[in-house]
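step: validate -> pass
step: tokenize input -> pass
step: predict -> running
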Amino acid sequence: MEKNSKIYVAGHRGMVGSAIVRKLKEQNFVNIIERSSGELDLRNQQAVIDFFAAEKPEYVFLAAAKVGGIVANNTYRAEFLYDNLLIESNIIHASFLNKVKKLLFLGSSCIYPKMAPQPLKEEYLLTGLLESTNEPYAIAKITGIKLCEAYRDQYGCNFISAMPTNLYGQGDNYHPQNSHVIPALIRKFHEAKQHKSPFVEIWGTGTPLREFMYADDLADACMFLMKEYDDKLFINIGTGEEVTIKELALLVKDVIGFSGDIKFDTSKPDGTPRKLMDSSRLHNLGWKHSTSLKEGLKKTYPFFLAANK
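step: predict -> pass
step: emit ->
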């Protein structure tokens, strides 16, 4: 990518897309194309085709998606499948029609089978059953990977895919029901501190293992891949480090300064028991994350405070 290349970041207002835009600007890219969902409905194929024909982006970061945590994924199953299929299909097809030089599609670690061996290697895709609570979202993301592969095979398009681990950071969603685990915990501990609650209740047993990456580290990885990676096989983006939900809760509690107890509601689902990505392919190419989990949480809490004044 040249500094004046036309670069379209789909989903620029989301946590991942906004992090990519920040990274592009930080590296002095000056021709960034952005459209809000109010300006361009990515589910509308003709609108997307018209947009690409008019703007002619050379590079595309496909970070737009309908996203949420366990509750949202399990409640809005139709929307999570339908909306995500439309968004990725429209953008990938329009990128082909308009001869985009390179596209990076961002998926999710939930694409892997629920009981796949750990850590999760790229070749484990489609080797077993998915976690049922987020199966529609996972199927949509798997379809995006396969679309990129198919357009590469049939038309020679340089469309690559990357699967990030669990993310958090600036621009996250803190909705009480529809958020992921870190923003949900930040909100819970913050409100408990405000109300001087004696304890915070958390879903599940606290034993599942999870890996987390600060969103700005992901953006840095995306820039690296856009410049350095051209393979057909999708690539994992992770830290290689994991914590239990209980350990995570204790970290969040410490960062926020909540002095009460933590209780686990074991009647609620845990989700996948363990989810660690094998990111050795990416690490062997020369990229690694730079933000520790505690450092990232300390950076993230002020963004929550600013968004909830």
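step: describe -> Residues 77-97 form the longest helix (21 residues).
step: cleanup -> pass
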